[in-house]
Amino acid sequence: MTILAAWIAAAHTGLAADLDRILGSSVFEGATLGVCVTRMDGSVVYERNGDRPLVPASCQKAYTAALCLYRLGADYRPETKIWRTEYGAYVEAPGDPGLSASQLRKAREELSIPKGATVRVREAYRPGHGPGWTWDDLPYDYAAQVSAFSADHCSFVAQATAGRLLPLDPALNIRVRRVGTRGKWKVQYDPTRAAMTVSGRLPQAATDLEELAQPDPSAYAARLLGGRYEAAQEGPPDRPPDLTIQGAPIHTLLKECCEESMNPSAEHFLFLGSKARDYSGAGREMRSFLETTVGVAPGSVEPVDGSGLSRRNRTSAEAMCQLFRWAASAGLSAELEEVLAAGGEGTLEKRLTGSSFVGKTGTMTGIVGLCGVLTDASGTKLAMTFLVNGSRGPASKVRSAQDEFVRTLEESTGSGREVADLAPFPGPGPARSRRDD
Question: Under CATH, which number does the domain 13-73+252-421 receive?
């Protein structure tokens, strides 16, 4: 056997061959893959285009969670402070992803804030929509405007029962028009005009018709307190607040955010962790954290939002694996893994049940991602990232192939000839499993 033949045979036996076979599936035809699997000591188990920056979709939330846990600590609890004043109320809002409409209504009652009062608010951030969010996403709850003073995840639900549309909360200040009663129901909503039109025959059973974005989250929160929103130009009164609404511990809020992939909450966490006021500053702070503290390679990440909704976000698979290795070395792996989804939970509800895998999913049109940690049959902990961009096949089939990839890693013992263990062939070009087909 020639040296070349022997090298090729070694490169395609054992675990590497099994993983190559999965990545060679027709479901990935025409797509760009970024795959990286490493041990926690940094040694590579398997890699293909691991250094190529790709769109992560909601896998971006793993970075956001790590930033918050590192900067704020798992037990941090946000506090919204309210003062009763002669003009109505003053609010200091650092940002609370879990603040609810019922909490603000209760605060209004406790402080006897009159209807029509002025509510002056000092918000830590109010950046609106994220960079690169597409216009057709903006009416929906997952693309709501971002502001520190907001309630109910900056969203609301249009509901119907007994063939009738249920009234919306008046504090939303949305004009509703009901037209026609034939054909399937349809909801058309323009948050920029605060106008909603509902047409068609509505269901008899209680039904959530659509989950939509509040037209102005800060103004809605102020109306819940009984007044008109006004950005504070001065600091708070020189006395303790009359009421403080303490949020849940950040690890609880992050768990809900990551398991259910809640975009508005993730944007809150980006600004809470970065201490920035706008997306430009938040992106710079996140990139600095990842390159300086986490240790990802310069240029391997380009973060622009906290949720992954923007297609301008970029990360390499290797950079995302480095995040999980860093968390282990920094003593944050338990906290980070606790807020991510395990098989059978959240966005993994119907996936990887009984698996050791814990991580984050990411899905957009043409994009399917999976990142996290798992344990192989020898008890070795692995960091894994599998990003797919430009997918033409059904996302369900791509996810099934990713799950097979994870199961194959779990069943391995780490003892075969793996791609990372091979000496480079003395000729041009990298090993086949390290480049595009």
Answer: 3.40.710.10
SS3 letters across 185-221 = CEEEEECCCCEEEEEEECCCCCEEEEEEECCCHHHHH
Average of pLDDT values for 44-66? 97
> Is the pLDDT score of 425 beyond 90?
no
355 Rama sector, left if φ>0, alpha if ψ -120 to 50, beta otherwise: beta
- Of 35, 38, 138, nearest in space to 389 by CA: 35
CB 150 within 8 A of CB 126: no
CA distance 294 to 307: 19
**Model confidence at 431: pLDDT above 70:** no
pLDDT tens, residue by residue, 220-279 = 999 999 999 999 999 999 999 999 999 999 999 999 999 999 999 999 999 999 999 999
Distance CA 28, CA 20 (A): 12
- Residue 267 near residue 116, CB atoms below 8 Å: no
Among residues 153, 83, 159, which one has the least CA distance to residue 121? 83
Q: How far apart are CA 322 and CA 316, in angstroms?
A: 10
Q: Is residue 264 classed as helix, strand or coil in its secondary structure?
A: helix
Burial 139-163 (b: 16+ CB within 10 A, else e): bbbbbbbbbbbbbbbbbbebbbeee
pLDDT above 60 (res 417): no
Quote the CA–CA distance of 286 and 313 in Å, as a whole number.
12
Percent of the chain residues past pLDDT 70, beyond the cut? 92
Residues 6+ apart with CB under 8 A from 366: 389, 390, 391, 392
pTM: predicted TM-score of the whole model, two decimal places = 0.90
Per-domain boundaries in the chain: 13-73+252-421, 79-247
